[in-house]
Every structure is written in C-alpha cells, then in structure tokens.
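Regression report. Comparing outputs from two consecutive submissions.

Submission 1:
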Amino acid sequence: MHSDPGHDVAPGARHPRHRLLLATVVLGLLSTLSGCGSAPRRAPAASPAAVDVEPLIVRVEAPLATAANRPYRAAGREYVPDLSGRPYRRQGLASWYGSQYQGQRTASGEPFDLRRLSAAHPTLPIPSYARVTNLDNGAQIIVRINDRGPFRDDRIIDLSLAGARLLGFAERGTARVDVEALSTGEVRALAGRPAPIRAGR
C-alpha cells in the first residue's frame, strides 16, 4: 500500500506510509501549533486506545481482484502476488496506519477504515485472510488482506489501527509478529462467523 514518489505501484493501490516526507512536515507543523510531539503512526484525531473495533465476519470471497493481483513495482522492487494457494507463514515486524488515511482507497478498491481488521501485504492475494500473532504477548487476530505494502525490508505486514490495538502495539508503532495465511478450508470453516480473537498476556 505504500511507495515513494516517483515509483510505479500496483494499479489501484495506495501507499501512505512511505509518504514520509509529507507526513513529517505535517506532523511537525501540528507539533509546533500544539506544543507537543506526536509519533508518526498515531492517529491524530483519536487516541489508539479509544478506537472502536468492528468484528471481522469471515466470508468466502468473490473472485480475486484482477488489478490488485498483477505483478507491480514499488520502492524500487518488483513484487509478484502469490496466487498459488501454497501455505504462507513468516515472522517479522508489523506496523500500522490510522485516521490520517481514513477513507482512502485501498488496492482492492474499498475505502480504508481504521476500525476494521484489515491489513496490507506485498504478495498475499487480495482479498484473502491471515492470522497475525504478536510474538511478544501472544495476542492473535485474523485480518482481511485488502491492500499492498509495506515496502520496507524490515516490515512484513501493515495493519489497521484496530488490528494494532487488539495485538497490543498501537502505542509503540511496531511489533514482532507471526503471519500465517488462512487456507481455503479454514476460511470456509469460519465463514459467516466473527473471526476469533485471542487476548495477549
């Protein structure tokens, strides 16, 4: 979902977190006016702890979004979405994005909503589902992949603010996580029900 200016991106994708220069300038101006600093990933309109979370109802998805699943280039690298259905599991850093991007279009074409349990991933199919576990506290959620990004070597997934809140790292900005794509069988087994949430220690 993120790219530096001047780079090609996936059709329909938005890439807010790599607009760091603009974000830094805006946050700097806000800090000057308010007299206090603000972390780059915090939602300026609300405290992360105050954000309501909408339950994620898992559903058997319609056909994959054509444009969002084409090979693309972002931040100087080539990415090829993996539509093979092979198991996917990785560990790395997760980050999040909040109200400064509320309503912006995701790669799937849907508007971003910070209250929903959604996420951006460079190569998982759009749409699809993934189980995300915070390795530091054991909290676990399921998110719907509907966007592309993050495009940094040290990040593997970008969660909505709601997801970061439930995993317990909204105030910190990043967390070590395990990301596992849900299989077709798991999605069918959960279809029509709220996705399970495991609280952290």
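Submission 2:
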Amino acid sequence: MDSLTYLALVWTAVFIAIVAARKTKLTPVLYYLALGSLMVNTGILPEETDPFIRGFADVGIILIMFALGFEESTANFLDSIRKSWGIAFFGAVGPFLAAYLVADWFWQDHAIALMCGLTMTATAVSLTMVSLKSEGLAKSVVATRIMTSAVLDDIASLALVAVLIPLATGEATLDLANISWIVFKAIEFFILVSVISIWILPHDTSSWMSHVPVIGRYGIKHLLSFDNGRQATLAVLLLALLVGLLAHYFGFHPAVGAYMAGLILKEDYFLRDDERDSYKATWQIVDNVAFSWIGPVFFVDLGSKLVFHWDIFLAVIPNTIALILAVFIAQVSTAALAARYTSSLNWPSSLMIGFGMLGRAELAFVVMDIAYVQNNIITTEVFYTLMFTAFWLNVAVPVTIAWWKPRYLRAVD
C-alpha cells in the first residue's frame, strides 16, 4: 500500500500547487517542484523514488510532451514561422551559449556544459502567456511572436536532445563519423514522422495511397470516428506512445516522438460525416490528464530530487547567480535584437519579447530529468544550480512584464 499512499500524497501536493498558482498567477510547475522538495526534506516522501511513482512520472513526461504538441495548431505555427524565425533562432542560441560557457567555466566538462546549454534553450510559453493575459496583453503582437518562437525553440531543442544525449552519455564519441550517424538518424526519424503526417494519416482516396491495401481505404478519420468518437482519446494516446517508441527505436527519448505525434495531428481529422467532431472533448481529456493528474507527478518527483544539504546549497550560490545573470542578459538581448531587426518591431515591443522569453518550464525539466535522473550525466551540484536558475528566471517573467508594460503601451498607442 506504500505506493498508493505516496500517490495520494503527490496528488495532494498537486492540488495545493494548483490553488497556489491561481492565487499568485505563476506557473504550477514552480509549486510542483517546491512541494516535491518540501515533502522529501520533511520525510513525507522517501529520498529513493518508489518504482510505481517513477513509472507514473515516466508516463507523465510522454503525456506532457504530447499535449504540448497536440494543442499547437500546425497551420498557425507554419504561418507565423516567417515572422518569428529570427527571434526563435537568436533567442535560443544566446542562452544556449551563455549557459554552456558558464557551465564549462565552473565544471570543465563538455557533457555537463552541453546539458546546461540545452536546459536553458527552450522558453516556458505557458508561463509567459499567463503573465501576458494577466496584464491584458494576450492578444498582442508580442504574444503571437513569443508563442511561435517558443514552439520553434521547443522543436529545435527536441532535435538537439536527440543528437546531444548520445554524445553526453558516452554512447557515441565526439568524432565526425559518430556525429554524422546521430544526425542521420535524427533526420531519418523526422522524415519518417513527416511521411506519416503527409501520406499515412490523411485519408485521400484520390492519391496514390488509395491503391495501398487497408491504408488506402481507411485513414485517421475512420479511426477517430470509431464508436462515434468515444475511442478518439485512446487512439491519439496510442499514436503518441507508438511514435514515442519509434523515437526510442532510433535512439532518442520517447518524449521527442510524443511531441511530434501531437504536432502532426490536425483538428480536421476529428470531423466526422455527421458534422459532429470529437476534437474538443479529446483535447480536454488529454489536457486534463497531462497537466492535472498524471503529468504533474513528473514535476513533483523531479522536485523530490532536491534534497537540501546545506553544504551543496551554499556551494552552488555563486554558480546560480552567474548562470541567472548570464542567461538573463543573453536571452533578453538576443531576443530583443532579433525582434527589432528581423521582425521590424519597435524597441519597447522587442524588449517585451525578450522579457517574455525568460521563463524555463516543461522541456527544461524534461532535459534535467534525462540528464540527472535517467543518465547521471550531470552532478548533484549542477542539478541544484539548474533548478534554482530555472526557478528564478520563471519568477522574473511576471515581474519584468508588469514593470515594462507602461513603456510598452506608450509605444504602441
């Protein structure tokens, strides 16, 4: 019964975190991590994660990444790339290099430096959108640019996870042949997912696929409409798991495949002949499962790795301060410059985008879990540094947006 008791405690923490997040208008992720750490340091949860909870957390990673891809509109995403590519590219390269150089300076280990750079690359778009919404800016131009740039950064980060993790774990050596092989496998995987997206999922009887047995007669719409759409949720989650397993077959983390599975699903696939559609119902279930009761277990479990040893806590203070300052300056400056010169926005709007891209959330913590819990690439000191840095960067998002809002509004009025 211990496993079920631990699950009850974790879910209690999740509920408390959601209430606290609503009151403070911060992302629940911060509270999941904080409560996980609080419970392990007070002896409520064991330092060694229960296998059942760890399995729950692994499923949570896949569900979170699938949900993030599933809620993203592929059409809107593709339409906004032209205006946001510069912000995404330079706004990701800046913090990656900053974190890499700081980590390499402190720990003199290229694998650790790579993981630190990767952790600080992707933006916490959900935190930024909540902050912008609370300030009445959710429909602004800067919100659209940040959203698209963050999604581009997420996809690029997932590709880097696929390429860099084998190098960092020592499964592949740093030479041209091995790097080329890893890149080739990554490209092969993404091409295969694209083939699934373009030719296998859609059901178009006029195409050459109509001559293929079974697939030519039945498509994803038939699968999602089976039993009047009641099994649509099962179908999309099965797709997420299968593409996740495909990613694992290619040597990548299943979360990479789960995200891509969500991204290639379209709302049109849920429309049925009787004009009813199950998309909204399916999305609500997936969102609820990923962010309300299974996905949060992953963050609480990750927070429980922060066991407070005062010698470690005090030791990482200089590292944390240096990393926060480096990423803050690099993120704001590169994103703002890119917004100004590649999207032709004015300086107040450009700086608002820079402040809005400071947060680090889901994908950053997935990378930390892969690097620290699953593969032991980074040390305990590095893990503490990254966790504290991500926490304070997330706190900086609503603070800087609220502080900069008057200047931004004067410029756009």
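Expected: both submissions complete independently.
Actual: both completed, but the second showed a warning that disappeared on reload.
Relevant detail on submission 2: Residues 2-412 form a domain with the Na+/H+ antiporter like fold fold (CATH 1.20.1530.20).
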